[in-house]
Write a structure and sequence with these properties.
183 residues, alpha+beta, 15% strand, elongated
C-alpha cells in the first residue's frame, strides 16, 4: 500500500488536516447555534415555515417587509435550528424537516404572522410549521388565527373608538335632556 515513509507522512498529514477541518466546522456550527439561540431567547415571536418554492425576489421582498416590522428571517440547516432551540430551552418544534426558514421578531408580535400569512395565502407551497408567541408554543393550526388579530395600532384604535363612543353617547344624552327640559 505505502511504498515509502514519504507516502505515510503525506497520508498522515491529510488525515490531520481533515480532522482540523471537521473540528473547525463543528466549532462554526456551535457558534452559529449559540448566536441564534441568543436571538431566539430575546424574541417576542418566532415562526418556522417551509419556504421551498419562493423565488429569490419574493424572499427578498418578504425580508424587506419584515425588516419594517422589526423582524428578521434566518435560513440555516435544521440541526442548527434544533441546537439553537435546545440552547434557548424552547421545546415543541417537531416539524424540523425540509427547507425551513426561521423568522424572529423583536418588535410587534403579530405583524410577522400577518406577513407570512399573506405569503401562505398566495403561495400554497409555503407552509407554517410552528411558532412561539411570548413564550407560548403555537401550533401550525393556530398561526392563521393569530394572523387575523389586528396589530397593536389597530387594537389601540378600536379601544379609543369604544371609549369615544361612550363619551359621545353621554354627551348626546345630556344634550337631549337639555333640549326637552322646560326653562
Amino acid at each position: 500500500m505505502f511504498n515509502n515513509i514519504k507516502d505515510i507522512l503525506i497520508v498522515n498529514a491529510k488525515i490531520k488536516l481533515e480532522v482540523l477541518i471537521v473540528k473547525a466546522i463543528i466549532q462554526q456550527k456551535e457558534t452559529t447555534s449559540k448566536a441564534l439561540a441568543e436571538k431566539i431567547s430575546q424574541a417576542k415571536s418566532i415562526i418556522v415555515f417551509e419556504y421551498l418554492g419562493l423565488t429569490a425576489k419574493e424572499l427578498t421582498s418578504l425580508r424587506k417587509k419584515l425588516h419594517a416590522v422589526n423582524a428578521k428571517i434566518y435560513v440555516a440547516k435544521n440541526n442548527i435550528y434544533s441546537r439553537a432551540f435546545t440552547i434557548a430551552k424552547i421545546e415543541g418544534f417537531s416539524s424540523m424537516q425540509g427547507p425551513n426558514a426561521l423568522l424572529i421578531a423583536s418588535g410587534d408580535e403579530v405583524a410577522p404572522f400577518k406577513e407570512i400569512y399573506d405569503i401562505v395565502k398566495t403561495h400554497k407551497f409555503v407552509k407554517y410549521k410552528d411558532g412561539v408567541l411570548e413564550s407560548n408554543h403555537i401550533a401550525a393550526s393556530q398561526l392563521a388565527q393569530i394572523a387575523s388579530i389586528p396589530g397593536r395600532e389597530g387594537l389601540l384604535s378600536m379601544l379609543l373608538s369604544c371609549l369615544q363612543a361612550s363619551i359621545r353617547n353621554l354627551a348626546y344624552g345630556i344634550q337631549a335632556i337639555g333640549e326637552h327640559k322646560p326653562q
